[in-house]
Amino acid sequence: MFTGIVEEIGEVTAVEQLTNAARLRVRGPLVTSDAGHGDSIAVSGVCLTVVEVAGGEFTVDVVNETLQRSSLAKVAVGDRVNLERATPAGGRLGGHIMQGHVDGTGVFLGRDENGVTTFALPAHLSRYVVEKGSIAVDGVSLTVAAISADQFAVALIPTTLEVTTLGRREAGDLVNLEVDVVAKYVEKLAEAHIRDQVQNRDSGGGTEERS
Questions:
Q1: Domains and CATH numbers, the chain
Q2: What is the average per-residue pLDDT within 120-141?
Q3: Residue 155 near residue 181, CB atoms below 8 Å
Q4: What is the pTM of this model?
């Protein structure tokens, strides 16, 4: 689990294309200080498993499913990425609960002089995004300031712009999005409940009131 509080900005130092996967090497002195084989590190919001650590760099394999859903399919040597180690038991929940399972990509549209930043939102994710709710953008836990059918906006403070890659984004850049997992569970449970209620009604299985 992650909380969306970026620990450092890393740099991609190598990209190797494998069969149905890609292998990335990323420089991150802080996150590798106590990392080992099998540990989880979020790379721009994508939870990846460390396969090797050496000299302040770590190596991860990115499977095809993840490449298709995230911006990592277009990552190149020299690109900067947000890095966060998995939250330890008993650690502070500084942002919100994140799995590192990216739901899709959005597009950076622009930022005004007050730091209000707007992103294009895929239609299939819009129902999970609410005003004042949480959303992860490139692994950064953010609060939604405004929402429409196909866009959402967040207000970024100077510190966030400085210590994450969001301050380097330009119009048209892809960003990884992870919506609130709680909203997805609520939707699934509600759908099952409504379906059961409808089936029970249609089959005449409802109980009659007694006078």
A1: 8-85 (2.40.30.20), 104-186 (2.40.30.20)
A2: 96
A3: no
A4: 0.88
